[in-house]
Amino acid sequence: MSTEEQPDRTPEGAPRSLAEALRTRDDRSLSALLRTRPDLITPVPTDLTQLATRAGTRASVVRALERLDHFALQTAQALAVAPDPAPYDALLGLMAGDTPDETVTAALPRALGTLREQALVWGPDDRLRLVRTARELLAPSPQHPSPTGLGPTVAEATAGMSPGRVQEILTTAGLPSTHDSVSAVASLTALFTDRTRMAALLSAAPAESLDVLTRLVWGPPYGQVTAHPAPHLRWLLDRGLLLPTAPGTVVLPREVALRLREGRAHRETEPLAPLLEAAATHRPQAVDAAAAGQAYTALTTVEELLKDWDEGGPAVLRADGLSVRDLKRTATALDVSEPIAAFWVELAYAAGLLASDGEADERYAATPAYDEWLELPTAERWIRLATAWLTATRTAGLVGGRDAKDRTLSALGPGLDRSAAPEVRYRVLALLAGLPEGTSATADSVLARLRWERPLRSPQTDPHSIPSTPGPGGPPRDDLRSRLAQWTLSEAEMLGITGRGALSSHGRALLGLPTATTAGTADTAVLPAEPGDKLPAHHQHTPPTAPLEPLGPAEQAAAAVHAARLLTPLLPEPLDHVLLQADLTAVAPGPLQRPLADTLDVLADVESKGGATVYRFTPASVRRALDAGRSASDLHAFLTAHSRTPVPQPLAYLIDDVARRHGHLRVGAASAYVRCDDDTILGEILADKRSAPLRLRRLAPTVLAAQTDPATLLDGLRSLGYAPAAESAEGDVLITRAHAHRTPPRTAPEPVPEGPPPPDDTLLTAALRAIRAGDHASTAPRKATAPAPGGSLPRTSSAETLATMQAAVLTGEALWIGYVNAEGSASQRVIAPVRVEGGFVTAYDHTADEVRTYPLHRVTGVAELADGTP
Fold this sequence. Notes:
The protein is of the alpha+beta class. The chain has six domains: about 5-140, no CATH class; about 155-260, no CATH class; about 275-460 and about 480-570, no CATH class; about 580-660, no CATH class; about 665-725; about 780-865, SH3 type barrels (Roll), CATH 2.30.30.100. Helices cover about 40% and strands about 10% of the residues. The strands form eight sheets. Strands 19-20-18-17-21 form a five-stranded mixed beta sheet, with helices on one face. A five-stranded antiparallel beta sheet has the order 25-24-23-22-26. A four-stranded antiparallel beta sheet has the order 13-14-16-15.
């Protein structure tokens, strides 16, 4: 019989199973259970018995254990090595030891309440039961030692031992012999759990024997011995302080270890979350300004990236993703490292601004949504990026690593989704939000806090394993959750959600948290903190308003509006002018308005970036503007209108000189030809040895023919220092404008959830109603009927079913029926028939809480309910 069902040992009135314990809960308690374990209603169970069964499955219990904090998990581990069932005092003794610990005593009810709420523990305080699956996962075994480091009990370790050997151990330990092994094991157990007698026994032990016990006491409890053990080991074996489990292997019994540990199941308990350590404290205004500067840099970086891919970006790898070479080129173009370039590429992809075009020669390019994004106000464009980052499961930090098949993970490629990423991002930012405004935390303290909150495995490890994990104070683990937290801290800074390591005001607003302005604490002075200073106690825990999960759509929309309102005044105003200099450069002292920036990008080349952008004018850049349809007069007028300084004479000469030669030569398609009214220029071209690859020959005094295509001919002549212009078949000059290649409409990639999402209130209400109704249908007392095989619903003939239905319509009584739907799924229902006609019964279905019509031929059986039940 399972640990959840032991009616013979359960006092009257106490729940005999987890299902009965769930039946004693109210709707509020059941709602809390289903919110924390949403896999339990996917799909909705038919009744509470099925809910309890699902709550005890291995996959569900593993998922629930992984979401426990360190102290709640330690409590579950202690229950796994406690007697089953265990009184509360025994659990407290395992957690606090023989010496009372006020902190543990105060925190244990909270941890036990968490385990009860998540249906991992049930029963009253005097009979606490850990669900069987959790006990199997956490209890010690030779293959999987307990996280507590405890071994098996004396009874378990001596299960295969001969009765004679057990009696020998009793005699050597100074205990009287017994008539059977059961009483002998009980006598030995009583000795090991008695503090006074155990102290007397150990006082006679050799020093080497005590050293062995010291090495085994905190685990692992197993050791190796030879066929002829040393005297100090023989002393322990003869008295049962070490018991053999296999040839050459001995174990320290659990009762002995607990007595040596002074009753504690854990070396150290962690009832409270680790404190966050302040790294530095800045004025909130300085934090907001730094974050706003980073936010604007993020926008310009994404624009620069997609502008560089305007005519079609890198090719898509056969296995999807960006090649290492293309990532390096992108990093060089953005003047950043490759990991940071991967972050910006993935961010644009997550925001739906970048995708593959899906053509035969598949390439990456901007989507139509990018053009719409460019038209948004600056703050709203940032909100789009920040929101996409918060909810994305794609993790740029994995780029360059290896997957399970030892294949390199590439940017924009498969295998980058990590379902834990959104939760970790929100949690890290929520921790920062719990600090005073303007205060940043050390990365080590943030990681220690996260390890305390989720001490079990990372999502990369085996989902069916429950490993032994070090406490928050132990050595740091390089698990995925810790790496996600580190990436979150750096990415939030690059994106402008944080500034100088502290959460900004618009970052708080984006998370739906109150800001200094909304809370009425603006301009509050914050004292500087020295690195390593611990925060006051009231700042060590996250405030109740800090979200642990992403906001809903409506809340997120409202938070985005508020964040945009806070960010807008912090962003620099775009300028409508530049400063022209005599060295053929133009200095933009700040961000430029879009029309001005777009024209300058064509007319000049960017030479350097920073607080100010420096553009350089060259013959090639001026020719590029002329090719785009601008005339020399247009360029002069443009520079005069947008320069705060006079147009330098060298720049004016450069424009006029390039314009004078631009279009003097005309290139068209013959294969290709060159024509010019000045035949001497054509003669110079033919005489130039560098024109040999173009294979030119004169057709007429003003026309040369080439055996190359027009594009190659244009490039070749420009390399010779000429400024040819392309012309159409009609002889008109072709204007070459920048071509913006766009993909077909694409949607942003959907996040990959780790499991079912938390149910909303509507789903919870409907699920609870269905579970309650189904449980009522399966447990409602029924009038005596002929017993059915296996205790299932009695089957009735069609005539009996019809007669019972018609009688119920007249009397208004409720019936218990079995029903098989069109898909062949059988269910039990409680209905109140209203009308029976045409082979159908119309009834109020208590299970579904609505009026439904059922075909009578699908009703497998019917029975009347006992008096007094609806």
